[in-house]
Each structure stands twice: as structure tokens, then as C-alpha cells.
Amino acid sequence: MSKHSKDESPHDTLWHLIKDMKFAMFTHRHADGQLHAHPLTTLNRKLDETGTLYFFVSRATELGQRVQADGNVCVTYSDPTRDSYVSLSGTARVSDDRALKEKLFNPLLAKAWFPGGVDDPNLELVEVRIGHAEYWDIQESKMRQLLKMATAAVTGNPPSMGEHKELQLG
Q1: Distance from the Cα of residue 72 to its chain's centroid
Q2: Residue 39 falls within a domain, yes or no?
Q3: Range of the domain at 139
Q4: Given this model, what pLDDT does residue 148 score?
Q5: ∠ CA 72-66-118 to the nearest 5 degrees?
Q6: pLDDT given at position 111
């Protein structure tokens, strides 16, 4: 049974896949050219029509500086128990939008990292405008997956499992 409706918009499909995966791996380019990834908490309560994700980061780290130097990022989500995987590429920027910070700040999630709340001097808001998304949403049971893989091993034909799509946003 499908985990999301075939009639959903790309924004709705993405949100349906990631809404329960609160932690993402946020990959950016370091000053030395290498790619670095950081686990971050997604702050969104929904994915609006702009296709923007929000994260709080600390000024005490280099992440905000790196985003300002090179805003090309990749954000990935995975939920192995549901066999859902999402990779999002986009453009990140640091925002000083106080009203948005107030709207997104959740003391239960963020107070440990930012004890000064919205006024904490280390609090930075990173916005990621999604340009491209790719997801894998496997709907077969683990047993059925194993059976398909065994059949593929015998026949030499790759197994067809679940849904794999690329979406252009923005």
C-alpha cells in the first residue's frame, strides 16, 4: 500500500516523506573544499510553496560562515524502519528574521543548545531553498524485498521495489 497519494503535489509528497524524520544530515562545502555533514533538527511544521527548510545552527561553529561562503548544500533524511530515503539539493543562506526565529523556536528542542532563547547571541537561522529532490520509498515488506532480491540474483534482472522519483522544485 502506498505511503502517500499519487495526486499529491511535489511539496506535499516531500513533506509526507520527511515530516516524521526530524533529523537531517546537512552537507556543505568546507573551506578546504571537502564536503562536511552535520546532523540538524528540521524546524518546519510544514513545507510551504517556496520549498524552504529551516534549521538553527550555532555561531560558535563554522556552519553559518560556510553557508554564507558557498550556499550549495545537500540535506538527506532516512528512515530505515519505513524504508524511506530522501536527498534534497538546494541553496542555503543565513537569515536574521527575528519573527521567523520566534515562530520556529521550540524551547524543548532548542533551549539546551541556545539557553538565551531567540535572543541567544549564538543562534543563527539557516534557510534551505530546495531546488532538486530525489526519494526512494519502498513499500514492500522486508520478506517480499528479500524474495525479490533472491529472484533477481537468480535471474540477473534487477529487482523493482517501491518508488524512486526525482522532483524539481523552485
Answers
A1: 14
A2: yes
A3: 10-168
A4: 41
A5: 105
A6: 86
Q: Extract the residue ranges of the chain whose pLDDT is less than 70.
A: 1-6, 139-166, 170
pLDDT at 156: 63
Contact in structure between 139 and 162 (CB atoms under 8 Å) = yes
* Rounded Cα gap, residues 170 and 159, in angstroms: 32
C-alpha cell at 95: 537569515
- How far apart CA 61 and CA 42 sit, in angstroms, is 18
Please give the Cα distance from 13 to 29 (Å, whole number): 28
pTM given for the model? 0.81
User: Would 5 be classed as within a structural domain?
Assistant: no
135: cell is 526519494
Q: Which residues have C-beta within 8 Å of that of residue 119, sequence separation ≥ 6? A: none
- Residue 161, amino acid: M
